[in-house]
Design goal:
It holds the Pfam family GerE. This is Helix-turn-helix transcriptional regulator. Keywords: DNA-binding, Transcription, Transcription regulation. By secondary structure, the chain is an alpha+beta fold. It folds into two domains: about 170 residues, 2-Layer Sandwich (Beta-Lactamase); about 140 residues, Winged helix-like DNA-binding domain superfamily/Winged helix DNA-binding domain (Arc Repressor Mutant, subunit A), CATH 1.10.10. It is built from 13 helices and ten strands. The strands form two sheets. Strands 2-1-5-4-3 form a five-stranded antiparallel β-sheet, sandwiched between helices. Strand 1 and strand 2 form a beta hairpin. The chain is elongated and about 80 Å long. The C terminus is likely disordered.
C-alpha cells in the first residue's frame, strides 16, 4: 500500500471516528459502529468490544461480530484476562496497550486461547487492545481475529495505536449526555427512558423492560416530565428486596440507575409507606384511612420512624427522606413476609 493510500485511509478513519464520538455525545451507543469501523480497518472478519463493569467485577459484551458463542464466553471470562499470556503482556506494558500475533515475543498459536478457540475456527492472526483513557482509567477491551497471520497490517496497527485513547474515551463517555460517567460503574442496572416511553440499556446493561419497576418509572416520567429535578427513590420488588433508584435528567429523556440495598435505616415496608405519606403532608388520620389502620397504630409507626431516623419531628423526617431518596417509587409490592415493626 502506497504512502498516499495510507494517508487517505488514515484521514477517512479519523473522520468516521470523529463522527462516532459526536454521535456518542448526542446519545448513541458507540460500540456497534466502532466495531464495524475497526474490523474493516484490520481486515478482520470477527471482533468484539467489551466493557469493564467495576460494580460486578466482570467484562460485558458491548458489541460483537463473527465470533462463536464459545469464543465470546472465553474472552469475557476472568480466566482469559488472568491467564492469557498475550493479554498479560498488554496489561503489564501501559506504553504498548495493543499487540498483534506478530508483535509478541512468543508464538501465540501455541497458547490455549489460540489452540482451543481461534485456530479451530480458521483464525490465524489478530490483535488485542486494552482500552485505557488518558487519565489511566481502564474501560474495556477490543479483540479482533483475522484469517491471515500478517493482519492487521502495520499501517492499521499504527492507526490503532495513535487513536487508542480516543477509542477508550468513546467507551467511557456516558451513553447518554447529561448523565455523569461516575453514575455508570456504580449501578447494577442503568436504563434510559426516552420521552416516548421506550427503554434502552446504558453501558451494556439490560433494561428492566416489562417489569413493574419500569412501569413505575414511566409513570414518574409521565407525571414529572423529562425536565423535573433529579430524584432518587426506594423500590421494593416482588421478592421483598429493596432497590435504590436514581433518576437523572438528560437530553434524550431520563437515565435510571438501580442498586439493591438493605432496608434503609432498618425501616419496615409499612414504615416506609407511612414516611412517604408524611412527606406528602398527610396527617395520622389521613394515613390511617389510606392504609386501613387505626390512628393509634399509625402514631406508633410514626414514633418508631422518628426513632430510627434519629430526628425529632415529622418535618425533619420528611427533609431527611427527600435528602436520602427514601421516597417510594410507585406502589411497592407487598413482600412475602409480614410487614411488621
Amino acid at each position: 500500500m502506497s504512502a498516499s493510500t495510507d494517508e487517505t485511509r488514515s484521514e477517512e478513519f479519523g473522520l468516521e471516528l470523529a463522527e462516532i464520538a459526536a454521535e456518542t455525545r448526542a446519545g448513541a451507543d458507540p460500540a456497534p459502529r466502532l466495531l464495524q469501523l475497526l474490523t474493516t480497518l484490520g481486515e478482520a472478519p470477527a471482533g468484539i468490544i467489551t466493557r469493564w463493569d467495576r460494580q460486578a467485577g466482570r467484562h460485558r459484551v458491548a458489541a460483537v461480530r463473527g465470533y462463536s458463542p464459545q469464543i465470546v464466553d472465553h474472552v469475557v471470562s476472568n480466566a482469559f484476562h488472568r491467564d492469557d499470556p498475550a493479554y498479560r503482556a498488554i496489561a503489564a506494558d501501559r506504553a504498548r496497550p495493543l499487540r498483534s500475533w506478530q508483535d509478541l515475543e512468543f508464538d501465540y498459536a501455541t497458547t490455549c486461547t489460540a489452540r482451543e478457540f481461534l485456530l479451530p475456527e480458521g483464525y490465524r492472526g489478530g490483535v488485542s487492545l486494552r482500552l485505557v483513557t488518558r487519565r489511566g482509567r481502564y474501560v474495556g477491551d477490543l479483540h479482533m481475529s483475522t484469517e491471515a497471520r500478517c493482519l492487521p497490517s502495520a499501517a492499521a496497527m499504527r492507526l490503532l495505536h495513535r487513536c487508542h485513547t480516543l477509542l477508550a474515551a468513546c467507551q467511557e463517555m456516558p451513553a447518554f449526555p447529561g448523565s455523569p460517567a461516575a453514575l455508570l460503574p456504580d449501578a447494577e442496572n442503568v436504563t434510559l427512558i426516552r420521552r416516548d416511553g421506550s427503554a434502552q440499556p446504558v453501558d451494556g446493561r439490560a433494561p428492566e423492560e416489562g417489569t413493574a419497576l419500569l412501569e413505575a418509572l414511566r409513570a414518574v416520567v409521565a407525571a414529572d416530565g423529562t425536565h423535573a429535578p433529579d430524584r432518587s427513590y426506594h423500590w421494593l420488588d416482588r421478592t421483598g428486596a429493596w432497590h435504590h433508584v436514581r433518576v437523572r435528567q438528560v437530553r434524550a429523556g431520563v437515565t435510571v440507575s438501580t442498586n439493591r440495598v438493605a432496608a434503609p435505616h432498618g425501616l419496615s415496608h409499612r414504615q416506609l409507606e407511612i414516611l412517604d405519606k408524611i412527606c406528602d403532608g398527610h396527617s395520622n388520620l389521613a394515613i390511617a384511612r389510606r392504609f386501613h389502620l387505626s390512628e393509634r397504630t399509625v402514631a406508633h409507626h410514626v414514633e418508631r420512624i422518628l426513632g430510627k431516623l434519629h430526628v425529632g419531628s415529622r418535618a425533619a423526617a420528611a427533609a431527611l427522606a427527600e435528602q436520602e431518596g427514601l421516597r417510594l417509587l410507585g406502589p411497592p409490592h407487598s413482600p412475602s413476609t409480614p410487614a411488621g415493626g
